[in-house]
TrEMBL record:
Pfam families: LBP_BPI_CETP (PF01273), LBP_BPI_CETP_C (PF02886)
Domain Lipid-binding serum glycoprotein N-terminal positions: 30-252
Record's signal peptide: 1-20
Organism name: Engystomops pustulosus (Tungara frog)
Annotated Gene Ontology cellular component terms: extracellular space
One GO-annotated biological process of the protein: defense response to Gram-negative bacterium
Entry protein name: Bactericidal permeability-increasing protein
Record note on quaternary structure: Monomer. Homodimer; disulfide-linked.
Keywords, in A-Z order: Antibiotic, Antimicrobial, Disulfide bond, Glycoprotein, Immunity, Innate immunity, Secreted, Signal
SUPFAM superfamilies (UniProt xref): Bactericidal permeability-increasing protein, BPI (SSF55394)
Domain Lipid-binding serum glycoprotein C-terminal: 267-439
GO MF: lipid binding
PANTHER family: BACTERICIDAL PERMEABILITY-INCREASING BPI PROTEIN-RELATED, BACTERICIDAL PERMEABILITY-INCREASING PROTEIN
Description of its domains: The N- and C-terminal barrels adopt an identical fold despite having only 13% of conserved residues.
Lineage, uppermost ranks: Eukaryota, Metazoa, Chordata, Craniata, Vertebrata
Length: 439
């Protein structure tokens, strides 16, 4: 599942989940220890691939032995097997993440050359390095653009045992200075692990983090800002990623006239990940679309399902408003539905509601296609919002619960709005709501 092409992505997941902050967010993702463990499982394969690139340089030396001074040279060393079987990742409160690895194993093949007295011989060797332990601390934060940053806060490693098996003529000579060889190889490997980890962070992970997008275009009107809001709240149990979660207009970005409220997640940590969304995210969306003049919808008769008896024409409405039919006999009508203010979402435990204020302007379509105003209704309704996460996106649907109407103005004389309840409720639920939900 993991390939080298997604190495930086897997490593950046944990980093991104640490760089959040002090300003109240509109959206929060909480990664528990279970979630960190899952990320660790995915990332360890990648880390193992990187550490397998350890290069062991040729080395030479000399040692005193029972047969006199011995000169040796080891070269052509290649890693044949590299395993990191045991690992653990955990939050470091106020800092970031700690990665601990133990029980690591490396197997290396190479060639050896020895000169002693007047003897010169050579052969092959197999080296097994056991008990490799690595401890890496990652300090994370965010830059001024809201992108995550990462730095190596500390790194240490240790090798418990080195075993070398030599082959070839007079291979017993190597046994005379085996201790020197073991120590030299141990030091050569230990000296490269932490620099390799540091180089992987600076050359691969850091550049990737600087290219991460912090905004996403929703449509031709709006985009969403999901940049980090500041330093991470990291506890011993979890890491919270706090994102701005703010909609903005593409053509002209203006701050919303309200601030995000405090968002508190439950203390439960039994799942890998938790999502928290405040009404700020949805209310900035409403503000943007209202300001851009996009919360205006038109209904004409060809949009009404054929099986609905009350057509959008003066003949049908004339049954409810007789004077309308007298003034405009057998003519089509049009409804212009617009929000009179930015819709506001209210999120409470177990209940998400929205109470928009709407104007419905009814027109008669004259024979020359011009519009004659008929009446203007003011509508107040309460809608239930159902929110879910689908394919990585937050999606929502509205369901109307009740509608209250008032007649603001009439160009066809006075009438009771009660008689229009059935028609207006039907038009809203069957025509307007599907359009709103698609947005």
């Amino acid at each position: 599942m993991v390939s080298s092409s997604i190495t930086p992505v897997l490593l950046s997941v944990a980093v991104y989940l640490c760089a959040a902050g002090a300003v109240n967010p509109g959206f929060v993702v909480r990664l528990t220890q279970m979630g960190l463990d899952y990320a660790r499982q995915q990332g360890m394969t990648v880390l193992q691939q990187e550490l397998a690139k350890v290069h062991l340089p040729d080395f030479s030396g000399s040692a005193h032995s029972p047969v006199g001074k011995v000169k040796y040279h080891f070269d052509s060393m290649k890693i044949r097997n590299f395993q990191l079987p045991n690992s653990q990742i955990s939050p470091m409160p106020g800092v970031g993440l700690k990665l601990s690895i133990s029980g690591g194993f490396i197997e290396i093949d190479g060639r050896w050359h020895v000169k002693a007295l007047h003897i010169s011989t050579k052969g092959g060797f197999n080296l097994k390095v056991e008990g490799i332990s690595i401890s890496v601390g990652l300090k994370v934060g965010s830059d001024t653009s809201g992108r995550p940053t990462i730095a190596l806060s500390d790194c240490s490693n240790h090798i418990s045992d080195v075993k070398i098996h030599v082959s070839g003529k007079l291979s017993w000579l190597v046994d005379l200075f085996r201790h020197n060889v073991d120590n030299a190889l141990r030091k050569a490997i230990e000296n490269q692990i932490c620099p390799l980890v540091s180089n992987s962070i600076t050359s691969k992970l850091e550049p990737l983090l600087q290219t991460l997008k912090v905004t996403a275009k929703i449509d031709n009107v709006a985009a969403i800002d999901y940049s980090l809001t500041g330093p991470p709240p990291v506890t011993t149990d979890c890491v919270d990623v706090q994102l701005k979660g703010e909609f903005f207009e593409l053509s002209h970005r203006t701050p919303p006239p309200f601030s995000p409220p405090a968002l508190k997640l439950p203390s439960d940590h039994s799942l890998m990940v938790y999502f928290g969304v405040s009404d700020y995210l949805f209310n900035t969306a409403g503000f943007v679309y209202y300001t851009a003049g996009k919360l205006i919808f038109n209904i004409t008769d060809n949009m009404i399902p054929k099986d609905f008896s009350i057509r959008l024409n003066t003949s049908s409405f004339g049954v409810l408003i007789p004077q309308l039919k007298k003034m405009y006999p057998d003519m089509l009508m049009k409804l212009k539905i617009s929000s009179t203010s930015a819709p506001s979402l209210d999120i409470r435990p177990g209940n998400i509601t929205i109470s928009p204020h709407i104007d419905i302007q009814a027109y008669v379509i004259l024979p020359n296609s011009s519009l004659a105003p008929a009446f203007l209704l003011n509508l107040t309704t309460t809608a239930l919002a159902k929110v879910a996460v689908k394919s990585g996106w937050i999606v929502g649907n509205l369901e109307l619960s009740r509608v209250l109407m008032d007649l603001k103005h009439s160009d066809v004389g006075p009438f009771s709005v009660v008689i229009l309840n059935t028609a207006v409720n039907y038009y809203l639920s069957k025509v307007i709501l599907p359009q709103v939900n698609r947005k």
